[in-house]
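WP5 quarterly update. Target: Phytase-like domain-containing protein. Source organism: Herbaspirillum lusitanum. Length: 385 aa.
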Amino acid sequence: MTPFSMASPVCTPARSAWPRRLLATVALLAAAYTCAADTATNANANGNPMPGATVSSSVLPGSGHSWGFGALDPTRPYLFIARRENGLSVFDTERRQLVKTIAGSAGANAVAFAPALDRAYAVNMDGSLSIIRLSDLSLLRRIAVDDGNLNNLVYDGISRKLLLTGGRREKRSAVYQFDPLSERISLKREFDAGKFDAPLALADGSMLVPLRDEGQVMRISAATLEPLPGWAGKQFAGCEHPSALAADEKLGRLFIACRGKAPQLIVADLNSGDAIAKLPTTPAINALAWDAARRQLLIPSGIAASLSIVQQELAGGVERYRTLGYIGTRPWAHNMTYDAVHGVAHLFTMDFTQAAPDAAGHKQDPIFHADSFTVLSISLNQPSR
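Structure tokens (predicted):
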């Protein structure tokens, strides 16, 4: 194990109010920019400046009130965005325009690709799996899988299978293995879990899954769906609700975003699961992304309206992690797809109106505005070589 030291971040978000309610937009943006200025000054003093960024935005049509996840087409500069009731939208990231919304794709929640088979796959809110021909963006068929919503999916290159995870359940949630060649569910395994958050596929043929309600992270074999030794409900001290994962597979590090009263990022050994470091972070994290070239972790928060950058430093046998700063985004920009080749983070949000809590103090759902769905793209400076 390499030695570890950590410099305290300059800016720590307020912990009392953020987990309970969405703050006013102006206050959020002011907080994000204040943190960015403070942290950038400290980073420059230590010779590790906050990267510059260029922010672009594109608005897509639609009147939906929710959206899921996005994924980058491995064959061309297209971003697939699962917009639930608005269907699966395909966005050209170079021209920054909508290519098309795939006919018959309403309910799409997440997407994955098998380019060797000329296929894209989307899991849907009605519990079905959509099979799409990648070359011409046509929906071939929808296959019933579950009677409730499916939350996410990944493609495992070792077993050459898709792994599908269910949405929120009362007590038991399932992972499905789908064979793209036979187009059938080849295996199913249930777990004691109320909610699976977005899974992470690793190059060794395993998959990590956060169990938010249970405060656990499990690692299973993609081939058998069996938990790996020591990972059948792995817990991390202080991690109330693990909600997003990323990995530095070269160094063997797992990054875990933890929701709760004291939101934090945990850095753990990818093989043993031993915790190595903890950093306070922004609230309500739904996605993480690791940039191996820059050795940076990207952390979006829709509540904080910010994209945090955490630097991994390896020098003199010492492993350090510190928050460099924040890039201001927008409220509700919590789901993210990251293009590590070009250093571009794509986030999704909508304009909204937020009513005050009712007479009993219950939080009200926001009302999202029609034709305001925005693809927010943040281009980081190229890493130094």
